[in-house]
Amino acid sequence: MAIPRSMGWLVVTGGIVLALVGLSFLALDKPNVVWGMGRASCPHCRTAVPAFAKRCPTCREEFDWVVASDEESPWCAWCLTPGEDEALRLRRKALGEEVATQRVAQALSISPAAAATWLHGVGRGQCGWCGGTGKDLGAAATETVPCPVCFGESRCIACDGDRRVRVGLEASHAEFERYRAAADVLVAPATPTETARSEIKTANEAFLRRYAGAVEAADLWFPPLFLRGNGEASPRAATMARQRLGSVLSALKAP
Q1: What is the pLDDT along the chain (255 residues), one digit of tens a residue?
Q2: Which residues contact 46 (CB under 8 A, 6 or more apart)?
Q3: Given the DSSP bridges, would you call strands 34-36 and 39-41 parallel, antiparallel or unpaired?
Q4: Residue 175: in which H helix or E strand, if any?
């Protein structure tokens, strides 16, 4: 249908407005930060950029900060890899359950019954401290105490079970900064050790309820040894879990 001449100017004006709006959207839609090996780079010049930046310090171009996808996130270094998982199972089979259980009990300083439970539950993506059971296997047999690392969730706190560590999440970074500030207060000499450990345990649980698997989760303190004294630094929970896995792998590997 032909457009009346009197309406032609409206059509032209509308086209110009639409074009300007489209150009505005294009100008606002900046390229996303580029992720690779858990590191963020400028999408324009590929220079590494600081966390949560929106302008490259090198080329000065702007970009949008986005969380790394699963494919761009690093693999977890605090739980069993697929290869270690397979090796552990092969050694259990070669040694037999009784010998393997005795070795694990000795390596972890837990009872044979607890060691058997640990071996039955452990696997890739599982918490290395409790062996994926969610329980503190060092507690008395008559007690059911949650694992001091995963607090009953059974999964590795550093990857939340999928073996990928999430990076680039600004909310978890902000929460961890608050956690660290609270921990700094607890380190004060006047704080009773048991009070400090109880407070850290509560803070760990609160953080992991929301941000298990975020990169900051690997830096949470290990509550049972927080402020352990003798001038020794307090250990990280994820590190303690990994050390326990290493002890078991070494014990089962021995001839």
Answers
A1: 455 555 555 555 555 655 554 544 444 578 999 998 889 999 999 999 999 999 999 999 999 999 999 999 999 999 999 999 999 999 999 999 999 999 999 999 999 999 999 999 999 999 999 999 999 998 776 678 999 999 999 999 999 999 999 999 999 999 999 999 999 888 877 788 899 999 999 999 999 999 999 999 999 999 999 987 655 678 999 999 999 999 999 999 977
A2: 34
A3: antiparallel
A4: helix 170-186
Q: Taking Cα atoms as reference points, which of 78, 70, 32, 44 lies closest to residue 167?
A: 70
Q: Which residues, 6+ apart, have CB-to-CB distance to 156 below 8 Å? A: 76, 78, 79, 125, 126, 127, 128, 150, 163, 238, 241
In the chain, what are the domain boundaries? 29-66, 70-255
Contacts 24+ apart (CB under 8 A), 27-31: 30/62, 30/63, 30/64, 31/63, 31/64
First to last CA, the chain: 90
Determine the residue type at 13: T
Phi and psi at 23, nearest 5°, equal -65, -35
Paired tokens of 176: 């961890």
Other beta carbons within 10 Å of 46: 13
